[in-house]
Specification:
mainly alpha
């Protein structure tokens, strides 16, 4: 029976990231029609000429596109997925050795750098227009996620609504710690009813 040999790690690797991404992967379709050469010119007024080098705005836009297309809901998850997914790395122009930007860079960009502008809307519109022109999206309908999410409630400690009365939380007695908000709400409702 054959076994993998782990005697010594390989010193050099011959690896091309573009060969690791399948030809039918969605990022290949998007990359074939997406031209982001305008991003640097559009975002230049928001970047100072002094200080530490910033994250490439085209990289940030590409990362956000990956997040939207593949329904990655948080910036933290987006950065984690970009760290391990070779197709996402290829689309964003990162090599296997390149460091993925920290998730806080997106928050800072949204809440500080671009706070008083509509730049994200303009960037989004240009990307969608390019995808519509290439036939990747129709641009005529949209979908809304209306998933039901189960509440994180303790069924053993719940009280049915029909049994919830003033007698459960009498005045003058301290309400249990978890029912303080409910007790104050009941008192407000009682005052309104009078």
């Amino acid at each position: 029976m054959g076994r993998l040999k782990h005697d010594q790690g390989q010193f050099f690797y011959s690896f091309r990231l573009s060969e690791a991404v399948p030809g039918d992967h969605p990022v290949r379709q998007i990359a074939s029609v997406l031209d982001l050469s305008w991003v640097h010119l559009e975002l230049a007024p928001f970047y100072p000429n002094v200080g530490r080098p910033s994250i490439d705005p085209e990289l940030m836009v590409r990362m956000l596109i990956v997040g939207y297309v593949f329904a990655i809901r948080s910036e933290r998850a987006l950065c984690r997925d970009l760290q391990v997914n070779l197709a996402y790395r290829w689309f964003c122009g990162l090599s296997i050795e390149d460091k993925v930007p920290d998730h806080s860079a997106f928050s800072r960009a949204r809440h500080e750098r671009f706070r008083d502008s509509d730049i994200f809307r303009r960037v989004f519109e240009r990307v969608v227009e390019a995808c519509i022109a290439a036939g990747l999206v129709g641009g005529q309908g949209f979908a809304v996620d209306a998933s039901l999410i189960a509440a994180d409630a303790n069924k053993q400690r719940s009280i049915p609504g029909s049994e919830w009365t003033q007698t459960l939380l009498p005045r003058g007695r301290a309400a249990p710690r978890g029912n303080i908000c409910q007790a104050s709400m009941m008192r407000r409702l009682e005052r309104r009813a009078k």
